[in-house]
Amino acid sequence: MQAAPATRTKRHAGRQGRRNRPDRPGARRKQIALAAGLLTAVLALSGCGGAGDDDSGKSADRRAAAPAQQDGVGSGAGGAEKGTGGSAAAKKPNPSAAAHVIRTASLSVEVKSAPEAAAAARVTAEAAGGLVADEKTEQVDAARASSHVVLRVPQGEYDSVLRELSGTGKLLSRTSTAKDVTDQVVDVDSRIASQRTSVARVRKLMDRADELSDVVSLEGELSNRQAALESMLAEQASLKDRTALATITLNLSEPKPHAKAVADDEDGPGFLDALSGGWHVFVTVIKWLAMALGAAAPFLAVAAVVVVLWQRLGRRGGKAGPEGE
């Protein structure tokens, strides 16, 4: 009966110890969770700080490098643009210079003196580096003359020469045309190159030919191809001449006399006009009298002969009468 209280005391102590003793698995879990949370917080703080430092460092680096990059890019772009622009300006041909254009113009101008205006046009063309291709001056009537002049001037001086010639007098008409023959020039150049290659090929075959018949045949073929080449060269020279020099046809004429007479009549007749009119009438009367005398001269001569004969016969009859008595 005494052992029971001791046993109870042991059991109570064991229970009390179990109550006071902590639960080891739960504590460990709490410790692990707490450590993980602390570690996560530390890592987060360090990561944010590092990231912030890295971002700030990178931002600073970027801000520091941005002007240099912009300067470098700008200078590189500027240099590239300058280099490209310079090379393009140096190598790219001018479209107006590369184009082959045939320009022609025709002018009709009324001037006071056609020969003098033609001489001035000749001087203008020669001063511009051109020439006179054709010139013709003729007398229309006793008071007027006209001139036909064909001028060839460089393309660069075409507009200035045309303006100067238009201002030499009263412009009656003006026409101008421009024909682009660039494609034709390129085609002719290409055909000439091909034809020269063909001629050279035939000549090589002639050098290798041994038979007389082959030589004769090749000579005929060479002659035909050479003639075609010469024709192409002549066409090329003609295109070059027409595109290098513009053609200006100038027609010069003097005003008609009746225009001057009308201008003079607007002022009214004067003493000289009356004197000239009287003289004209006097000369006209003299002419008519002379014509009348000329027409009556044969009849007057016959009448004079008859009168002379009649007088002589009358005198002889008068003398014969007294002697018979």
Q: Would you mind describing this structure in some detail?
A:
- There is one protein chain.
- Helices cover 73% and strands 15% of the residues.
- The protein has 325 residues and is of the alpha+beta class.
- It has a 5-stranded mixed β-sheet.
- Strand 2 and strand 3 form a beta hairpin.
- Helix 6 (182-208) packs antiparallel against helix 7.
- The radius of gyration is 61 Å and the shape is elongated.
- It starts with a helix and ends with a helix.
- The relative contact order is 0.09.
Summary?
The protein has 325 residues and is α+β, with helices and mostly antiparallel strands. The protein has nine helices and five strands. The protein has helices spanning 3-20, 24-91, 95-98, 114-127, 158-166, 182-208, 212-244, 257-265, 271-324; strands spanning 101-110, 131-139, 145-154, 170-180, 245-253.
